[in-house]
Amino acid sequence: MKERIAAITSFMFCIGWSIYCVSWILGHGIRGNVDGFMNFAMLTLTTSTIMYIVWTKFGKIEMNELERLNYENRILEKKIEQKVLKEKFEDQKGH
User: Residue 49 and residue 43: Cα distance in Å, rounded?
Assistant: First the structure.
């Protein structure tokens, strides 16, 4: 969840900064101007950040095979524990 919040926050910041940079470049231009070059550089960085965030599906972390198997094993263990506890509860309830 933290990854998603960070990705969405970064995405919104980059969108805002990109809009600012484009409007500044359109209003002032980039020729012979250090500010124009810096805004163009920031536009490049924010665009690449936006692309990275979109490509990673807003911070969604993919599990590798081993992590996925461990996750599924934990789920199965919890289901078995739940079944055993349910049986114990029904045995106590019946007596």
Answer: 10
